[in-house]
Model the fold of this input.
Amino acid sequence: MPTDATAPSTAPSSTPAAPARTAVITGASSGIGAATARRLAAEGYRVVLTARRKDRVEALAAELTEAGHRAEAHALDVTDRAAVDAFAGGLDRCDVLVNNAGGALGTDPIAEADPADWRAMYEVNVLGVLHTTQALLPALVASGDGTVLILSSTAGLGTYEGGGGYVAAKHGAHAIAETLRLELCGQPVRVIEIAPGMVKTEEFALTRFRGDREKAAKVYAGVAEPLTADDVADTIAWAVTRPAHVNVDLLVLRPRAQASNYKVHREN
Ligand SMILES: NC(=O)c1ccc[n+]([C@@H]2O[C@H](COP(=O)([O-])OP(=O)(O)OC[C@H]3O[C@@H](n4cnc5c(N)ncnc54)[C@H](OP(=O)(O)O)[C@@H]3O)[C@@H](O)[C@H]2O)c1
Done:
């Protein structure tokens, strides 16, 4: 009889399997975040879905698990630093962080804008990215091939009237991407910025116009094919799945009908 020391290699190992390559997605309860979760799960990542609306991320994680993927859900407000730290502390591995949570509030000109809206946009689009990135950076470095992806916007690269607070916040997100890439040079972590133009998602414009469906619909009126959440998720998945030494610094994508923040072709 073999002793323990010479036990056949077919014996069950007591060493737990290493956790699967893991992508954390913030704002995964709708739009681009949900589409990205679906797409990265299909690419073989264990996806960790986070958002404030726990029921929605749980439902998506259940759907993905049912389809044979590895997915889990956590309620997380990225503006709550203590909650972000607790979440990060409970994670065994992180290879990819998709900083997607964000959004716009209002289209008031600067002369009339509500500072509370500006504060809220800064909190989620800038400090939210800072919180999750700081909290998960040790795990991303430890992964040996980490990726921080920041979903900014063409509003982070140019201004437009009425964009004020959102433009300022997304310029902040762009500044984080540019600065972090410089600071991490030499470490095994890429910093990718994806800057979409007009994307027709279920909630973005509705949130911006505080639930006014008519105003929200006007954003996309007459535009033959605005980008979809799937278009952006496809771009994110492409950038994330390049070989580890390839860093897509900044990728701007817009629908063909949108040549700039100002120039949009509308039919009718
Ligand atoms: N749609 C566009 O035209 C467009 C263009 C360029 C860039 N973007 C950017 O792309 C990202 C996704 O936008 P989207 O179009 O998919 O909009 P969306 O459908 O409104 O999704 C926004 C997501 O962010 C989450 N979120 C908001 N505040 C949060 C917070 N404090 N903590 C955690 N999660 C929070 C929301 O989930 P909960 O409410 O459940 O927390 C939701 O899942 C945003 O950063 C947006 O600025 C959008």
Observations:
- The chain has one domain: 22-253.
- The longest strand covers residues 189-196.
